[in-house]
Amino acid sequence: MSFTRVLIANRGEIARRIQRACRKLGLESVAVFSEADRDAPFVAEADHAICIGGAAPADSYLNIPAILEAARATGAGAVHPGYGFLSENADFAAAVEAAGLVFVGPEADAISRMGSKIEAKAAAEAAGMPVLPGYRGEDQSDVKLLDEARALGTPFLVKASAGGGGRGMRLVTDLQDAAEAIASARSEAKGAFGDAAVFLERYAPRARHIEVQVLGDSHGTALHLGDRDCSLQRNHQKLIEEAPAADLPEALRADMRAAAVRLAEAIGYRSAGTVEYLYDPKRGEYYFLEMNTRLQVEHPVTEAITGIDLVEWQLRIARGEALTLEQSDIGFDGHAIEIRIAAEDPAENFRPETGQITLWATPPGVRLDSGVETGSVVSHHYDSMLAKLIVHAPDRAGAIRQAVAAIDTFAVGGVGLNLTYQRALLTHPEFQAFRHHTSGLPEMFPDGWTEPEPDEQSTALAAIALHLHLAPSDQSPWQSLGSWRLTGAAGRLGMASYWHNSSDGPVRVSSGAAQLAAILTNDTHCAVEAPGLNAGRLSGHVDGVPFSRVAHVERTGDCWTVHLQTPTGMTTHQFQTLQDRHLRRSSGEAAGDDTLTAPMPGAVAEIRVAPGDRVAAGDTLVVLEAMKLLQSLPAPVAGVVAEIYCAPGDTVAGNAPLVKLDPEDKT
């Protein structure tokens, strides 16, 4: 079972994470990459790299023959699947072993048994674990499922046996909807997992999602490495994870941990794995949910509180080593929180964001597992999660403070991220008091979530930061006002004007003796004494009080973007100079309101109209797939479909015209 070279059958931040563990053990790493990832950081940092196909996952990261051929061509002796893609594919694990390679993970049989949610629950019951009441029988007929649904009563869930991540799952609160929910879950399960089998399970409202990390070797030893709480979720996708699970009765915690070890022992589990539970605080009960037979996205919080490198142990166990740890050796220090950083716009229904990252200024002093850097391209072909921010403190309140402070100094340009939304979650009273649960986001934001507007002082300071950025370093601000200054009579001050976002009037920045002052359109005045912009920080004195804030200025399109740290978070401001406004006015008109354009790069999944169709404003014209999500694109105006510029299956660029309408008032 000895090997010295590991092929990593994955991409992005997890590929880089595995590479770090390989270097720690003196192993060489092999990166496999798609055409879209040719210039990605994980490719450049690998000891060896080989292209295995096109951008679509089916052509590359899900292409088992191509991955095995890459292992043969590069002389790899082992394959690490990471998470996602083929990590819980029993056929892949078996194919790796059949090719004479070592699979860094559990045996194919364990993956298969736990991959079937029905079989996994049966194994959990045999190991003495409580499970939610429901139906998990082999009879998948409509008649049987509907009979069982009536016997179970509402609310209940229809769940895909081979599913995960919320796919193939439907909540039924009215028995009249049961037949449609079963049919819909089956259809999605078949398309996503190739298996239409479903089961029914009682729905536990206001439940928490608790999981226990286990580690097993091939010599019969299994241990737990504590628990985590992953209750903050959107559409069954985790947002923030923490370890240990707070506010959990200690007797129940011990029982959950011991039960996870019993299950691992019962199935002869080797490698790192996770046993997941639902915990009902009202009843004081927990129920087995599933077992993930792979490394989890949230594994860093367990590493932070235990000091144990899980990926290192995966590799050592795959080499046949026995665990050198006893359960009593594993201690738990402090509290850790992980924030998933995704390229999406929460204010626009979490619309995926794509493009090139023009700025990636990360917070110091914290762990950041990232798959990108400045210059990286975020493609619509893959998952939107780009990085994970991990903090560790003596207690939960301290970890929250550290996480918020890190987000407040994280500046990213070119692609929108969910950081401001994650900050709102961390600072929400429900989260801080530990009253959140797996379906609690609507309660936390009953009116939806909107991006907070920058305050007036932030706008003023951002304009001053831009002014300093445009000023040559060897000149005073007054000397560097250049071609945009508006000069009065001799001996009087001059001003530079910057138009903020879409404001009609400018922010005016004036220079005085050792100070800069910004005047907003409502005549709000902010003066900064001894202003300076150095190494990404704006400093000075306001009303005699010194300050120093993260500030990055970049050119984006036809304007300047200023990323400025404030007491309430990182803010983004866009400004145009007088010259910019002149260039915009002379550059011609943009696309008309009668044309639907793509909001991002993606693949056309469906066209809902044909030439000659009459549509109302807001009707769905095109469905676009980007980052594994479907986006319904509405008609910008009412009218008649004049031309359709795309077809299903087309890959289109951002802002590409898709459908042209003859507006109603012209017909």
TrEMBL record:
Cofactor needs: biotin
Ranges of residues in domain Lipoyl-binding: 587-662
SMART domains: Biotin_carb_C
A Pfam family reported for this protein in Swiss-Prot or TrEMBL: Biotin_carb_N
Domain ATP-grasp: residue ranges: 121-319
Residue ranges occupied by any Biotin carboxylation domain in the UniProt entry: 2-446
InterPro entries membership: ATP-grasp (IPR011761), BC-like_N (IPR005481), Biotin_BS (IPR001882), Biotin_carboxylase_complex (IPR050856), Biotin_carboxylation_dom (IPR011764), Biotin_COase_C (IPR005482), Biotin_lipoyl (IPR000089), CPAse_ATP-bd (IPR005479)
Name of protein: Acetyl/propionyl-CoA carboxylase subunit alpha
Keywords for the protein's UniProt record, in alphabetical order: ATP-binding, Biotin, Ligase, Nucleotide-binding
Domain of life of the native organism: Bacteria
